[in-house]
Specification:
25% of the residues lie in helices and 32% in strands. The chain is of the alpha+beta class and 255 residues long.
Length: 255
């Protein structure tokens, strides 16, 4: 349900994400999800989530009385971005492995201990990925960065989630993009467009504007496919020595 890209450009660390949020129980979707979340700490860091970032209370479709109904803020049970952000706010030494493990533990406990979570729906995802929490942090000079990833999966022996892997990687070379989310769909359904995007992101020096345009073109191409898990506006932020700047943001907000 997501495509997120992280790449080091000529101006800093660029993070881009689509906006599609699907509701399988309702057979519908909307294109207004914010999958990139600037955080208050550590500095020069953003959090992105590929997969189930919010757990909603969604009634059976036959019980919804208004056509086109979709859940809103009052139906949010858990927000993993908020949970991770609260832990990140305590960071003293950046998004290191210890901090990411603590974030993972917070998310797992919240999910597994909340009685409001529909365990039947979760059991249907047994043994499958649940969410990737992606932490992109630029160095003080903006010329390098660090990528941290927490993989959460659904357990096979119980309707609960678990941490599968926590890893960090230093980013020092331009033109080495990292994709998260429904990359398998892109490779299978959009091989030509994906090839063009990777080619555009493989140059050094890598202009920031060209990078954002290449990722947006890939999201746009996916969004017009019927049943695509990817689509909607492409949000783009640049993390540099000056902090986090929105290059493209929904609702006309940018800069």
């Amino acid at each position: 349900m997501t495509l997120i890209a992280v790449v080091l450009t000529d101006d800093g660390l660029l993070v881009a994400a689509d906006s599609r949020q699907r509701f399988p129980q309702l057979g519908t979707f909307r294109d207004d999800a914010f999958k990139i979340r600037p955080v208050s700490a550590p500095p020069r860091c953003v959090l992105s989530i590929a997969g189930l970032d919010v757990i909603w209370e969604v009634p059976n479709p036959t019980e919804t009385h208004e056509p086109g109904w979709m859940p809103g803020a009052s139906q949010v049970i858990l927000d993993f971005g908020a949970i991770a952000g609260a832990r990140l706010a305590t960071a003293q030494n950046g998004a290191n492995l210890d901090l990411l493990r603590r974030v993972a533990g917070d998310c797992v406990r919240a999910m597994n201990e909340d009685p409001r979570v529909d365990r039947r729906q979760l059991a249907m995802l047994s043994g499958r990925p649940f969410a990737d929490l992606i932490f992109a942090t630029a160095a003080r000079n903006g010329r390098s960065g660090r990528l941290g990833v927490v993989n959460l999966w659904v357990r096979t022996d119980a309707p609960q989630i678990q941490t599968k892997e926590v890893r960090c990687k230093d980013l020092c070379e331009q033109g080495d993009p990292y994709f998260f989310g429904d990359l398998g769909y892109v490779e299978r359904e959009l091989p030509e467009e994906y090839g063009h995007c990777r080619s555009a992101l493989s140059r050094s020096p890598l202009p920031t504007a060209d990078t954002a345009a290449a990722i947006k073109a890939l999201v746009d191409a996916a969004g017009v496919r019927p049943g695509s898990p990817i689509g909607g506006p492409t949000d783009v932020v640049l993390i540099s020595s000056g902090g986090v700047r929105k290059l493209a943001w929904k609702r006309g907000e940018a800069g």
